[in-house]
Design goal:
InterPro entries: Isoprenoid_synthase_dom_sf (IPR008949), Terpene_synth_N (IPR001906), Terpene_synth_N_sf (IPR036965), Terpene_synthase-like (IPR050148), Terpenoid_cyclase/PrenylTrfase (IPR008930). With 278 residues, this protein is an all-alpha fold. It is 55% helix and 0% strand. The protein is globular and about 65 Å long.
Length: 278
């Protein structure tokens, strides 16, 4: 099968401008008295007219070879989920599938895995002992899926005054994982909330001083712009596909499935759009 490419249409960004009378609540000048000069928004002509919508190609919907390939890849990934033994590798695989927008294909397997990890996380701690990255990743994924995890799991990484231990200041993978986890705290939980400011400062310093590890650098930059928990999953998947492709440790099977699935889903949306405009 030929190499798959994501079909992506970039739409123009629109800047919003506000007059002083709108943005300043202390401005006493009435709208009638103000001499407002409206700026042109420079809107581009819409490309989504009837002819364009009807001309969209939907090969990924009508060509059975794509569906058959996707089905085969899903079974291979399902086998991966069942064969992985190490808890950290399981969590990393689940996190990757989520960020690539593939997790909905494997809900049963993911829920079973997280349930087992949640049940065994107290009795089995060797795999995450003194590992900030593993502890924070487990915390975030379990919280995302509704499992109860106490914030006290992070106390071993704090010094006497409640700051992140200085020995962890260069563990940028762990700090990034902690930063993302800090956005899933509950009201009244202060450990991660207090640590977030220092962690963000350390990550910003990392961006200035380190560009050798492109994959991690892009993840840190992306997280500081907006944390993962606040992003729209489908748009995140589109961004992460490009980033994951640059990861030297990427799984080619998962990457191929992610690209294929994205194109199939997008083609279905385009087909629906054609239908409602006829």
């Amino acid at each position: 099968m030929e190499k798959l490419l994501i079909r992506w249409v970039k739409l123009p960004k629109v800047k919003l401008f506000f007059s002083a009378s709108q943005s300043d609540p202390t401005n006493k000048t009435s709208i009638e008295d103000a001499n407002i000069t409206r700026r042109s928004a420079n809107y581009h002509p819409a490309i989504w007219d009837y002819d364009y919508v009807q001309s969209l190609r939907n090969d990924f919907v009508h060509d059975e070879s794509y569906k058959e390939r996707a089905s085969k890849l899903k079974e291979e990934v399902r086998m991966m989920l069942g064969n992985v033994v190490d808890p950290l590798e399981k969590l990393e695989l689940i996190d990757t599938l989520q960020r690539l927008g593939l997790s909905y294909h494997f809900d049963a397997e993911i829920n079973k895995t997280l349930k087992n990890i949640s049940t065994d996380r107290i009795s089995t701690v060797a795999w995450k002992k003194d590992n900030l990255y593993a502890t924070a990743l487990e915390f975030r994924l379990l919280r995302q899926h509704g499992y109860k995890v106490d914030q006290d799991v992070f106390t071993c990484f704090l010094d006497d005054v409640g700051n992140i231990k200085s020995s962890l200041n260069q563990d940028f993978k762990g700090l990034l994982s902690l930063y993302e986890a800090s956005y899933l705290i509950l009201e009244g939980e202060t450990i991660l909330e207090n640590a977030r400011e220092l962690v963000a400062k350390l990550l910003k310093q990392y961006l200035k001083e380190n560009k050798d590890h492109q994959y991690l650098w892009m993840l840190v930059d992306h997280a500081l712009e907006l944390p993962l928990h606040w992003r729209m999953p489908r748009l995140e998947a589109r961004w992460f596909i490009d980033v994951y492709e640059k990861n030297k440790d990427k799984n080619p099977i998962i990457l191929e499935l992610a690209i294929l699935d994205y194109n199939i889903v997008q083609s279905i949306h385009q087909e629906d759009l054609r239908y409602v405009t006829t």
